[in-house]
Amino acid sequence: MKEEYKEKRERMVESLSERGYIESEPVKRAMKKVQRHNFVPSNIKDRAYIDSPQPIGEGQTISAPHMVAMMVENLDVREGHIILEVGGGLGYHAAVLAELVKDEGKIYSLEYIENLARSAQRRMKESGYENVRIIHGDGSSGYEEKAPYDRISVACGVPELPSPLIDQLKVGGKILIPVGSKVFQDLVMVRKKGKNEIKKKNLGGVRFVPLRGEYGF
Q: pLDDT per residue over 133-151, tens digit each?
């Protein structure tokens, strides 16, 4: 069965590469290494390497692999980066980020739903990712305790850019965030040019579950 999952994973990654979602070797290596079937509920393990969102319980989903690839490519994640992830789900995206930042980096992943956060932490430990910390909390307010961050990755839709996330980003850092309605959003890249200066770039339409919390829906 492990060999079967490996073959499916490699076919998925090669397909994403051929379709242009994966552009760099580090992202390709990371997505080939992370065992996505360990970050989905047991009843859908056979669908783990299909390029589509999948339900993970509590009304939430795991993003399609092509969306994860697109997000990590656009964030330009480097070794040693300290990253805040908002909307951690069961931990797959955080695991891909962890592969990219290596042992010198750190991922702080916030999940609003306690059951998912507990499950994600267990899965992360079982998968050996010691540089990822799963935190149950309001991701819309960020995680000031470990700020500032080199990158912030948000996997839930917001009505507008949460000010705490801008405050917790390093000058020169990037936020990738879906901004719009509860149903449809634009994926927006935000660069922090100075303490009170940001630059935004619209990367196109996306569809994420809505972000809960003080600065969410």
A: 999 999 999 999 999 999 9
4, with CB counted inside 10 A (0-12, 13-18, 19+), is exposed
Residue with the two structure tokens 């309001």: 138
CA 28 to chain centre: 16
The yes/no answer on whether domain 66-206 falls in CATH 3.40.50.450 is no
pLDDT of 209 strictly over 80: yes
Query: If you write DSSP's letter for every residue of 10-37 in order, what string do you get?
Result: HHHHHHHHHTTS--SHHHHHHHHHS-GG
The pTM assigned to this predicted structure is 0.94
DSSP at 128:
T
Q: What is the rounded distance in angstroms from the CA atom of residue 104 to the CA atom of residue 106? A: 7
Domain residue limits, the chain: 66-206
Q: What is the CA radius of gyration of the chain?
A: 16
Catalytic-role residue among 17, 63, 119, 141: 63
Encode pLDDT of 79-138 as tens digits. Answer: 999 999 999 999 999 999 999 999 999 999 999 999 999 999 999 999 999 999 999 999
Number of H helices, E strands in the chain: 6, 9
Tell me 192's DSSP state.
E
Residue 15 falls in the annotated catalytic set: no
